[in-house]
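Field reference: sequence -> structure
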Amino acid sequence: MKRVLIANRGEISVRIARTLRELQLESVAVFTAEDRQALHTRSADRAALLRSPLGYLDAEELVAVARATGCDALHPGYGFLSENAEFAAACWTGGLCFIGPPPSAITAMGSKQRARARMEASGVPLIPGGDARTLFEATATAARVGYPVLVKATDGGGGKGMRLVQSEAELGSALERTRSEAKSAFGSDAVYIEKAIGNARHVEIQVLGDQHGRVVSLFERDCSIQRRHQKVIEETPCPVLSPVTLAEMGEVAVRGASAIGYFSAGTFEFLLAPDGSFYFLEMNTRLQVEHPITELVTGLDLVKEMLLIAAGEPLSFDQVTRRGAAIEVRLYAEDPTTGFLPSPGKLSLWRPASGPGVREDSGVFEGAQVSSNYDPLLSKLSVWGEDRSQALARMRRALSEYAIGGIQTNLAFLARIIAHPDFSAGNYDIGFVAQNLNELLTRPECDTDTRWLLAAAAAAAARAVDDAESRAREPSGQGLSPWLRAQRSSLKW
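Structure field:
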C-alpha cells in the first residue's frame, strides 16, 4: 500500500490524510466543483475533481479516479458510500484494497432486519419487535410488543427514518411518513417496528478485528445526548455503566462481530435500560464520527489500525487499557433559534479552541464557504481529562475559547448542555435534549456569550486595521495615519 484515495470530504478526509502522512503513505483527495477550495483538498498530497452530478456518491467514478491516480487502496471515511457493500466489492474488483470490512459483513449488517436475525442467532439480546410490511402486520406487531413503539427504516441510519408512536391511532400516519422518508433517504421504503424502551441510554461498543480471526472490544461510548435521534455529544466512560455490564456488552459485541467474519473498525450500538439490561440496536460497519474519544482514552489511532488490518497485518497491540475520560461535541453550522435550520455562508471568523487536553477535528478554515448541500458539521471538539470532572472543566473552557463569525452555529447550545446540572452529574438519557429544549435554547446574559462577541469584534477590528495598512502602503498612499497607529496599539486579542 503506497497511495490511498480518500472517498470523502470535510473533517474526516482531513483526519485520514493526517494518519496517511504519518505512515508516509500518499493521499489523494476527491472534490466536487463546489469543494474546489475546501480544506480537505488542500490537506492531501493530490486532489482529483469529481465530474459526476452524484459527486461523492458515484461509486463507478470514485473507483475510476482511484485507478487513474495510481492508488492501490481506498478509505471510505463515514457516510456517503462507507457502508455500501456494492462499492466495497467494486473496489476489490477494480484492483483496490478497500480499507474497511469485507462486503459480506457489510451486507449482513446493512439491513436492520437482517442484522437483527443474524445477531439473534448468535445469542445477542434484541429489543422486542417485528415486521411492518403492511398496516395490518404493523398493528399486530405493535400490539404484541406493546406501545410506545418505534417505526424504523430497515435500511436507515444516522437518526433518519425513525418515528415514535404512542398509540394505535398514530400508527397509520407514522408508517406512511417513515416509508416516504426512508424511500427518499435510502432508496427503500421497507420499515419495521421496535419496542420503545423508556428512559434508556444509547451506549455503543467500539470493536476492531483483523483478518486472522481476532476481534477485540475498545470499551464503550455513551451517545445519549441526541436531537431527533442524531448524536450531539458523546463521552467515555459511560457515567452509569457498571464494570460487569461493560464486560457483558463487550463480550456480546465481540461475539456478534466474530459471527459474521468481521474485520476492520466497527461499532455495536445498544440501548441500556435503567435496570441495567441492554439490547442490540444495529452495527455500523465503518469508522464512527465519535472515534476521537476512544483514541484519546486508549492511545490508539483507529485509522492506522484500519490501514494495517486492510494490509493483512494482525492487530498491533496485545492488550488495551483505558486511561481517563473524554468528551466530544459536534459543532454544526445551524441556528438553534430557527429550529436548527442549516446556516450556510462564508465563515468570516474562525478561532477554534486549543490548549491542554483539547483535540479539534475540523474541515473548515477562516474564509471558507459553508455549503448547504452537505452535512452542516463544521468541527468535532474533543477533550481528555484524568477523570470526568477534569474533562468537563476542559470542555467548558474550550467551548468558551471559540470565536466564529459569518454564520450561525450551535456553539452556545452545546455550552448550555455541558453546563446543565443533570449533564454534569451524568444524570441523562436519550430524552434529555427534548425534555430540556426550551431551557437549552434560552440565551442567558453570561460571560461566555460576551467573550464570543468581544472576540469577534476584536478580530473584525484587527482585520479592518490590516486592510487599512495595506491600502496605506500602496504607491498612492501617504502612510499609516495617526488614528490607525493608535488603533493598532490599542487592539488586544
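Note: Residues 272 and 278 are 4 Å apart (CA to CA).
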